[in-house]
Each structure stands twice: as C-alpha cells, then as structure tokens.
Amino acid sequence: MSTTRGPGNGPRVVLGVAGGIAAYKAALLLRELTESGHDVTVVPTAASEHFVGRATWEALSGKPVATDVWSHADEVPHVRLGRHADLVVVAPATADLLGRAAHGLADDLLTNVLLTATCPVLLAPAMHTEMWLNPAVQANVALLRSRGTTVLEPASGRLTGADTGPGRMPEPADIAAACRRLLASGARSYDLAGRRVVVSAGGTREPLDPVRFLGNRSSGRQGVALAAAAAARGAVVTLVAAHVEVPDPSGVEVVRVATAAELGETVRALAASADVVVMAAAVADFRPATRAGNKIKKSDDPARDPVVVLERTDDVLAGLVRERAGAAPVIVGFAAETGDESGTVLEHGRAKLTRKGCDLLVLNEVGEAKGFATPTNAVTILGADGSEREVAEASKDVVADAVWDAVVPMLTSAVTLTT
Ligand code: CTP
C-alpha cells in the first residue's frame, strides 16, 4: 500500500466502499476523482467484495487494496492512511457502516481509517428506504453530523428492486463535486453541522388563467447554490423551489411550490423547526385578483379586451420576522435593487433591511444583464448590526459560501440531536 502522491500530485483521498449494490457506482466515482488529479486509495469492506471485487479497485486506482488491518501490517496502514488523507469519502455508506462509524467501532481497515482521520469525512448513504428512515439509522446520522461528518442526503429514486424512495446513493458526479467542495473549503466545511436550514429559490408564478401566469426572470441559481453550500457544510437542508431552471442539488430535500401563497405557507411551516431561513426566492408582490377558470379568449371587439387587476400578496419575509420566537431562526432576505433618483442601491438596501426586520440582507444590483440567469453575482451582505461585507463579482457558489460565513457567527444555540 502506498500513500505517496500520484502523478497529478493532487489531494490524497481515501475512498471507502461498503457492502451495498451501489458499490458498482463507486467505480465511476473513483474514475472521476483520479481523472481530475486526486490520489485515491480504495478501502473496501469485506462485504463490498460480494458486489465489486478488489481487482477492479486495484486496476482503476493503480494501487493494492486491503480490507483488514492485517495485510501490510508492517506499514500500519490503518493509522497511516487516516493520518495522511486530505479527505475520506465512503460511497456507498450502508446502514451498518453508518452505525459502526457513529459508535466508534474499528473492526476492519475502513472503520480504523475513519477513527484515525483528522481530515474532512464525507459519507454518501445508500440503502432501502425503510432502513434509511429507521430511527436507529437517523439517530446515527444525526450523531455523525453533530460531530462534523458530512453525511449527504440520499437521492430519491429507483432502488435495487421495483421499490422507489429516499435511499439511493447520490450520483457519482454529485459526490465528486461534494468532495471537491470539502477539499476546497477545509476547516469551515462543518460549521453548519446538524443545523436545519430552509432556502427558498426561484420565481413564483401567479396564474391568470389555466395557461398563463405572471412570473419573473429568476433562475433560482443563487438559491440552489445556497442550498448546496449549506448541505456541504453539514446542514440538513430543505429547498423550497418555485420555478427553478437548474437541476436540484444533491443532499437536499426539495419541496416544489408554484405561487407566492404556496411558498409562504410552506416556508412558514418549515421555519418553526429551522435554525436559518434564507429567502432567496423572487416572490411575486402582486397576483391577478381573479383567476379565470377557462382560457381567456380574444373577441372581435378590442374594446372588450381584458384588463388585469392585481392584488398584493403577503410579504413572506416580513411575516417570518413578525412570527419568530426569540432569536431563532436567523432570517436572511435578498434584495434585487436598481438605483434611482430617490437613492443609491445601497441606500435602498439599508432601507429594505430596516423595513423587513431580517438579520441579514443580501443586496445585489440588477439590470438587464446583471444578477438574473447568470452564473456569477456581485453582492453586498448587510447586517442588522450595521455590518457590510462586499463580495466582488464571483460565482454563485462563492457568494453562497460568503452568505453562510456571515450566518454562522449568528448561530448561538447548541445543535439539538433531532431525528
Ligand atoms: N419577499 C417575500 N414576500 C414577498 C416579496 C418578497 O418574502 N411577497 C422577500 C424576497 O424573497 C426577498 C425580499 O423579500 O428576500 C426582498 O424582495 P424584494 O422583491 O426586493 O422586496 P419587496 O418587499 O418586494 O420590495 P420592492 O417594493 O422593492 O419590490
């Protein structure tokens, strides 16, 4: 066994593979990691060899593979691998592996590595839905997260048999992305461990008739980036998605909504047990006062063309602030502003922060080509305490991490181990 850096001199990753059918997908993860320059040592469990034999791991990683602490004992691999790794990722992490990791057992090489690792640890669960939802497994996951281990939420979808539900291993590309994020963010990776986070994203759509709606140009990219970043930093995340034009982030529960009213109802219900609520959605301020039951038709007489009357929607953000109990949840608003004769973008932002009463306001200047549907963003994060952090033009992922960097110091209460 060797832990010397590979030809790419890239980060050293230990890829643990536990005994589940998704082990075959770990081969794709291994390939993705090695091809992007990571130096990967595979540590399968003995059970996983029922699914994928060690020849596969040795051929793909170019390194010998062991499952127990007795092979190559002279090199003390169980200590050396854990100590020297920059990241340990276990994919798939079975219910048994999660249990052994949560309780500090060390009966094979992989669990020894988990105990000696001082680097970030990422677990990608895969199991049947009933097993994932079992309170024993959920308690183990909560315990691991509370200690700083990143446990991805499993994906929902087709499982081994005909059954479907949460329990499917996240896709190898998503796990690789989570690995890269953990390697890049280092120590701050775990600072949302065990926190419950709700992020709203995308643009609401207010129906006018069965085929038409009033919408807006929000793509949902920033909200999705916020949800993904929170999950990578250990939070348990629910994304309340209005109309969103990008794929769902992995490791995040997604609740779909359409209108401002549905979004408000959903976010309010989730806020009761959340540590943080981020309102990144572009929520309609007005909706058609009536919704036609049938498609509105043209008539021959232009004088009879319809006039749309609008009514106000509820302000979800202001409502959350009004209804919150004590200091929780921390509430973050967004404001897309343009400067005008009555004030600059910053002045409008400050006024909005005061008016809405939230803890942080992420302010961005918008225009035809700014802010919407673009991969980058430039924001100023305003704090109710008068603080101001500027984030110069950067990817929405970088902006997302800057927002969480601002939120984390505001989280004072201890993490509760809920299941
Ligand atoms: N928001 C909300 N409910 C609404 C409208 C907006 O919760 N009905 C939230 C948004 O999610 C965002 C923040 O309020 O976090 C600011 O949205 P914005 O549209 O900029 O603010 P408005 O209150 O609508 O002010 P304006 O009159 O400038 O549009």
In short:
With 419 residues, the protein is of the alpha/beta class. Helix content is 32%, strand content 23%.
CATH topology of the largest domain: Rossmann fold
Q: What is the end-to-end distance?
A: 39 Å
* Count of helical stretches: 13
Q: Judging from the principal axes of the Cα atoms, what is the shape?
A: elongated
Which structural class fits the helix and strand makeup?
A: alpha/beta
Number of domains: 2
Average pLDDT for all residues:
90
Biggest sheet: strands, sense, closure?
8 strands, mixed
Topology, number of strands: 19
What CATH architecture of the largest domain do you see? 3-Layer(aba) Sandwich
Binned, the helix content reads 25-40%
Roughly what fraction of the amino acids lie in strands?
15-25%
CATH class assignment of the largest domain: Alpha Beta
Spans with pLDDT under 50 lasting ≥5 residues?
Answer: 1-8, 414-419
Please name the fourth-level CATH homologous superfamily of the largest domain. Answer: CoaB-like
Describe this structure in words.
The chain has 419 residues and is of the alpha/beta class. The protein has two domains: 182 residues, Rossmann fold, CATH 3.40.50.1950; 215 residues, CoaB-like (Rossmann fold, 3-Layer(aba) Sandwich). Helix content is 32%, strand content 23%. The chain has 13 helices and 19 strands. A hairpin with a 4-residue loop joins strand 18 and strand 19. The longest helix has 14 residues. The N terminus and C terminus are likely disordered. It binds cytidine-5'-triphosphate.
